[in-house]
Write a sequence for this structure.
């Protein structure tokens, strides 16, 4: 199976920009999502905090706007990333980002 699509909206809690050794521009942000969803006919509070990675020149035009407090909708795919401490975590690699505020 090869399906890996995700759409998630939320508020940026922090962000940073950098260039890789190969010169590729990257923006990394933490996205906080809060909502309510029905599950088994009961209303459930949903909370997610996940890292989003935006890579390449197509995001350079919006990178300055991606600051804490800004609401966005991200479309992309999920992948596993290993941190410096050896812990694995899921991250979103954005294919599109839309500012909501």
């Amino acid at each position: 199976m090869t399906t890996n699509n995700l759409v998630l909206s939320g508020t940026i809690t922090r962000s940073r920009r950098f260039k890789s050794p190969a010169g590729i521009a990257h923006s990394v942000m933490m996205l906080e999502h809060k909502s309510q969803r029905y599950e088994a006919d009961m209303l459930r509070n949903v909370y997610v905090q996940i890292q989003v990675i935006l890579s390449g020149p197509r995001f350079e035009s919006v990178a300055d706007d991606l600051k804490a407090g800004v609401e966005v909708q991200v479309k992309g795919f999920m992948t596993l990333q290993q941190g410096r401490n050896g812990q694995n975590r899921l991250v979103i690699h954005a294919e599109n980002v839309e500012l909501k505020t």
Observations:
- The CA atoms of residues 11 and 80 lie 22 Å apart.
- Residues 6-99 form a domain with the OB fold (Dihydrolipoamide Acetyltransferase, E2P) fold (CATH 2.40.50.140).
- The two ends are 36 Å apart (CA to CA).
